[in-house]
């Protein structure tokens, strides 16, 4: 692999709410095609970081470059184009409750000029099937789905336009271990076959271990370290050490110094 | 496969020679309608190869269109010239191509209609049964509270009395005052034709005291309070607070229903009295302005001509209305499921049901009092 293309480049990001500084001088690079897992304690600003990159939160300082576009200073048109090239899956799916799952997935497709409604509906069915939902789930309303199904439906909507990047905020939180493992596998598969870059915020060590190519640790208001699971195990920082060597970590990362396949 | 997203290219070129279809261009969601239409004009049976060597970009929409075309043929169509990414994408999409399942047919025969009708009626009856059960729970817990006053939350009762009663006084009084004004105005125009202006006092007194005062108060309270009960209990239900209460040995009936319904039972008659007073005041004012019936004359006529029975007939309905509103509101709150939509749905259901039930009860009372001749 030569000269990996950087798809997300953050430089000197600063986010603050009132007097609370969440990020300060934060740098991060995300490469094309990788699955990057962002970890950190509760309230360290993982969700805020995701929202910053996706343009939902304006940082007080710093620059955000996504797919070669300066997100913060782009005009309306460029931003619109860019938004079609990324998909966001919010916690619990954030589906529109008045629309069926199929209609939810069709929402982003409606922006495509000249797309035949029948084809649009067929493509939505394809996306629904792609995330492992049953065909009939397309006719259901979000309130009729279980938590895991809603997440899958949220992912289907995020994938509607074949984005280059998907942002996932705690995709496996609140799922049972089997459901979570299935979701991990789904993310891996889709990333592989669609060439997706995945920006994944998670608390789940199993997810990190099973899906992520690279891990970024958020602590002390910045990205403290990035690297593979093996690199993380060598980090001396107390929080990072506790996180990757604690009792739960030992269960998720069985005695290995190198990351298994 | 290049992935430059700003390619606004929507045209694909198809050429066919000797069983091979050459596809060129960017096969993306933007061009898929075009591609699909082109492919559907071809006879799939005569095609043996799909040549993708000139495809600049392929996404899942493009892959879907190619695979749909391939699926139409009974023979195998081989794909040639695809990049390795395109091949892997085609494989992925092929594995998940949805197989349409027949949605359950909706039966439209008379029998099915009868079946649905029967179910509706049955669920209506079950709803009435459930309301009766809630009334039973309320009465039982109330009796228990009387025997064991220590279990009863007196502060909670006071709080709800303030919420449902005290805070409703301005709106109820204003509404009744305006009703009195309207009655006097309408009555005077009609009665003046017969020179019977003075009977406007009887008209106002009887309609306000007997019917309108308490009925309209109940409707306003139903709108304000039934919805508030449902929203409060429903959001507790949604966040599993009710279940938590149960596991802690706190009975929802005793802690949630009794203070609320009891507060309504106490406050609705008082609100009814306030409405009566405000209605008579509005009527008297209008009678004075419009017909020159002085307040003194209005009072004399009121005391002489109106039996106290009317006040009784009006106020005796208040506890029944209070019970209806309270039980409907609490019951609807307990039906809320764990999602926000059901909270909204049940809240508006509660208001509609409570108002409807109050009006039905009022009609039953009217017939009853007419029969016994009060
Ligand atoms: N809109 C907001 N207004 C004020 N403070 C916020 C807002 N959003 C997030 N925060 C604060 O920023 C911090 C980081 O939040 P978040 O990114 O949600 O944490 P997490 O890492 O658990 O996802 C928290 O302390 C939170 O209180
Ligand atoms: Mg978060």
For the biggest sheet of chain B, the summary is: 4 strands, mixed
Helix/strand order of chain A = EEEHEEHEHHHEHEHEEHHH
| Mean pLDDT, all residues of chain B | 87
Instruction: Give me the oligomer status.
Output: heterodimer
Find the count of extended strands of chain A (DSSP E, 2+ residues): 10
- The percent range for helix content of chain B is over 70%
Number of strands of chain B: 4
Shape of chain A: globular
Give me the strand/helix succession of chain B: EEHEHEHHHHHHHHHH
How many domain units of chain B? 2
Radius of gyration based on Cα positions of chain B: 36 Å
The secondary structure category of chain B is alpha/beta
How would you describe this protein?
The complex is a heterodimer of chains A (261) and B (374). With 261 residues, chain A is of the alpha/beta class. In chain A, 37% of the residues lie in helices and 24% in strands. Chain A contains ten helices and ten strands. In chain A, the strands form two sheets. A six-stranded mixed β-sheet of chain A has the order 6-7-8-3-9-10, with helices on both faces. The radius of gyration of chain A is 18 Å and the shape is globular. The two termini of chain A are 18 Å apart. Mean pLDDT of chain A is 85; it is low at 256-261. With 374 residues, chain B is of the alpha/beta class. Chain B has twelve helices and four strands; from the N terminus they run E-E-H-E-H-E-H-H-H-H-H-H-H-H-H-H. In chain B, strand 3 (49-58), helix 2 (60-72) and strand 4 (78-80) form a beta-alpha-beta unit. The longest helix of chain B has 40 residues, at 252-291. The model of chain B is unreliable at 1-8 (pLDDT under 50). The A-B interface holds A 67, 81, 84-85, 97, 109, 112-116, 119, 122-123, 125-130, 135-136, 139, 143, 161-162, 164, 189, 192-195 and B 3, 5-6, 10, 28-30, 32-34, 36-37, 59-61, 64-65, 68, 85, 88-89, 91-93, 96-101, 103, 337, 339-342. Residues 46-47 of chain A line the site of magnesium ion.
